[in-house]
Amino acid sequence: QDNSFEQFIINYCNEKLQQIFIELTLKEEQEEYIREGIEWTHIEYFNNAVICDLIENNQTGILAMLDEECLRPGTVTDDTFLEKLNQVCATHQHFESRMSKCLRFLNDTSLPHSCFRIQHYAGKVMYQVEGFVDKNNDLLYRDLSQAMWKANHSLIKALFPEGNPAKINLKRPPTAGSQFKASVATLMKNLQTKNPNYIRCIKPNDKKAAHVFNEALVCHQIRYLGLLENVRVRRAGYAFRQPYEPCLERYKMLCKQTWPHWRGPARAGVEVLFNELGIPEEEFSFGRSKIFIRNPRTLFKLEDLRKQRLEDLATLIGKIYRGWKCRTRFLLMKKSQIVIASWYRRYA
């Protein structure tokens, strides 16, 4: 019920994670269909980039204005910080404040004067402005770091490397918000280089009890996790896609025309393969560089056929090997018998 600076930066991190989730799933999914020339009806979804910009913008973002308040001379309080927010963010569609000049919030009695509200992707959250400036300005001053670095205990000395006189830095230490923002940026940069898989956990009830299913709670979580948009995009699109070359290489043994070698373009080989297997045309589409399969059951069918074909090939290979081995042994025995017989006739 009471949200302060700590919950604000946690929700900021959640917004950034939701943003990369949108970019790597919903946005990338639809852009790939356009790149591949697949017929596609665009699915609308909420992009929370506007909320991330409200928080992290270097000039007008909430964190930037909070740092500015912490650094400027004169009397600085939480109320002056909120007043600054009201001046800069008053017209932002996801920012609400009772003290704002925007008339639509003047009579909102659910919004106290000392609070502001942000409409996050998961819903509206109200923050108590009290303590924002002090918590953001929670700095470890240079003389304290130097004192801890001079300790005889090796662990304590290692925890305060900035106290080393050889590495002294006259710049003001970064604020808590700036450090958290830099950490989030590093996390996002790391995730962009990976191929992440998402696991969405849903609580069936607040009591952590077995066999209790709270429908309202589950529906709320599904909405704020962005799962509805994801399901709509997935159902309207294709469950599986793969470049033509690896697809042909994996399933070419299912068709006599493509096995063991296909002499031609990979796309033409995949077309021959799918036509030979009798897969309905509505179950797949040909892109510029990939084959798109709509339903998982079609892929499961291909995998089952491939598994059966591999078993048949393994049986064939085993049969040929045993025949070769027996023939080799027979030819060796025949050759040996001729040698023995010739020597026997010589001495007979």
Structure at a glance:
This protein has 348 residues and is mostly helical. It has 2 domains: 5-138 and 174-193, Up-down Bundle (Methane Monooxygenase Hydroxylase, Chain G, domain 1); 240-347, Alpha-Beta Plaits (2-Layer Sandwich), CATH 3.30.70. It has helices at residues 5-35, 49-56, 62-71, 78-88, 132-136, 142-149, 154-159, 176-192, 215-224, 227-236, 244-251, 266-277, 296-347, and strands at 95-97, 115-120, 123-128, 240-243, 284-286, 290-293.
Features:
three-stranded antiparallel sheet, 348 residues, 2 domains
Ordered list of secondary-structure elements with their pairings:
Layout: H1 5-35, H2 49-56, H3 62-71, H4 78-88, E1 95-97, E2 115-120, E3 123-128, H5 132-136, H6 142-149, H7 154-159, H8 176-192, H9 215-224, H10 227-236, E4 240-243, H11 244-251, H12 266-277, E5 284-286, E6 290-293, H13 296-347
Antiparallel strand pairs: 1-2, 2-3, 4-6, 5-6
Helix pairs in contact: 1-2, 1-8, 1-10, 3-4, 11-12
Shape: elongated
CATH architecture of the largest domain: Up-down Bundle
Number of strands: 6
Alpha-carbon Rg, integer: 34 Å
Pfam family, one: Myosin_head
Region (Actin-binding): 184-206
GO molecular function, one term: ATP binding
Keywords: Actin-binding, ATP-binding, Calmodulin-binding, Motor protein, Myosin, Nucleotide-binding, Repeat
